[in-house]
Each structure stands twice: as C-alpha cells, then as structure tokens.
Amino acid sequence: MSATRRANGVSRPSPRASSSTTPKPSSKSSASRSRTLFTLLQPAEALLLLTYPALLLLGSLFSLLDPSARAAPYSATSQSHPPELAPNYFALKRNVFNIWFVKVGWFWFTVAWAVWVILGMGMVGRSRAPLREKGRIVELYDDEEEEEEEEKDGIFVLTPQKLQSILRWAVVTLWWMLVTQWCFGPALIDRGFTLTGGQCELMRSETARQEMGDVREFVTGAACKLAGGKWKGGHDISGHVFILVAGSASLGLEVLGAMVNDARIGAERKQERLGKWGWGIVVGVVGMSWWMLLMTAAYFHTWFEKFSGLFTAYLGIAAVYILPRVLPEVRNILGVPGQ
Length: 339
What we know:
Elements: E1 4-7, E2 10-13, H1 15-21, H2 28-38, H3 43-65, H4 67-71, H5 96-102, H6 105-120, E3 131-133, E4 136-138, H7 144-155, H8 160-180, H9 188-195, E5 199-200, H10 206-212, H11 221-226, E6 231-232, H12 239-265, H13 273-299, H14 303-322, H15 328-334
Antiparallel strand pairs: 1-2, 3-4, 5-6
C-alpha cells in the first residue's frame, strides 16, 4: 500500500504510515530507573537501617508504658530524669556503659572497623568447590599449608577494597567530627542549638557576660557545662542517637556488604581464630550500640530530639553508602562494600 495518497493534487501522508513511523514511548528507561531505585540496598542492608527507627520507637513506647519511667519526673534542661529519681540504672547519665562506651563511642567503632578491615576482610573466602581443568577435577588448594600461608599474607595486603573502606570510614568520621566536635568553630549540633534560640544560662547574666569577655563567650555545650552553666533554650539534636546510629550502621553496612558478596559468588569465608576475633568484636560493638540506643530512646531526650539525631546520622550514611550506588563518579572513589 502506498505510504501517501493524493488529494487535490497534494501529496499527504497516509495515516497508517504516519502511525507506523511515529516512535512509541519506551518504558525501558523508566523501568530501569525503578529497578535501580529498588535495588539500591540489599534486603539485609535495608533491614539494618530499619532497625534504628524501630529501636527508637520501641524505647520511646516503653518510657510511656513503664509505670516507673512514667512516674519519674523529666528535666528538659538535662534531657534526662533527675539522678535521685531515675527509674533504673540505665536512666543515669553516670552509668558505666554511657561513660565508657557511648561517650567515647567513635573510638570503639573505629577499633571494631579496623579489626574488621585487618582480620575480617583479610580472611576473604575463596570458593571451596572443586575446579574442572581439562576434563578433570582439581582441588582449589592442594596443600593446606600453602592455603594458610596465603591467608596470613592476605591480612596485611592493602587491596583496593580495603583502601575504599578506609576512604569510606574517613568520610563518615569527618561527618561525625563536623556534627559533634568542630565545624569551622562550634559543631553543627551546637550551631543548631544556638540558631534555635539556645544559649548557656550564664550568658543571661550581664555581669557574667562582662567577666567572660568576647573571647570566653560560651558557644558550645561542652564549654558551658565546663564553666558550671546549663545549656538550655534551643533544639538539641541527640548526639547519643547520632553517634550510635552513624557508627554502628556504617560498621554494619561494611560487614553486610562483604557477607552479601560472599553469598553471591559462592565463597566461603574462613572462620580461623583471627577471623572469629574480627567478627566477634564487630558483633559485640554493634550489639552494645543497639542496646544503648534502646536505653537512650527510653530515658533520654524528646521524640523530636531523637528523630533529628537519627535524621542527621542517616544523611551521612546516605552520602557514603547510598550515593555511590547512584553516581558512578562517587562509586569509583568510595566504592560499595563487598564489591
């Protein structure tokens, strides 16, 4: 059939031909985009990140349902119950786990991560299945001593995967420092507090302000408490929630990435003595973080303060562990755990 037909001496395109030449909208790109968004995280990784809001919700609900916690007065200034009326030991700011674990939490997270990189990633498994070579089956390792020697050497080899893990942890640590320690002056937590109307109560006194002078004007919570004052009046992002979530989630994503990759390629991770130490320390630190996050949710801070701490932690997690799965340029630098 002719692609055109004549009408009054003018050639016009045939409707059928026109419809056949018009490109149909393709759903391939949208489907590909949907698949990409859906597979940004492995199921185990998504479950890990969902654990934190679940723990915060569980702890907050417990504080509402537990008669002793509900009856104990709560101080908005100290974000806790008064020590003499605390519902239990974990409601005390001076409890040993809070002082020696949460307060120096980033130290423990870094130790656990370093142990994992040296021992856990150093024990990267190799497939234990026999290999076929020219029609005959050969074992992957013929000499057990040779296998053990290779494993020991692999612990101290700086592989590209280890280097990218170091870079990822450096970025996460930088985010922790900016939020809690220093951000070209006061940390982001302190800046947020003062921007929302908070200040050291000593600054309310004109006499105290004159005695301190401009140099000693308190702009951080730590400096205020060190001088004997109270940090009050603004919104206080929960530093405990931020540290516990950012540290343990980063550590968990590093380990889960390797586990998922091992399962995908059919590798068997060695459980030698050193490897077990690596796994044990990681599990212990993450488990303690979950418990202390639950206690923080139950006895410290308001709902909004806990949510803002969680949100701030997730911003850093997204930048380091999710953004590389979307942007190849970032992926080439930071990589993805286990890949």
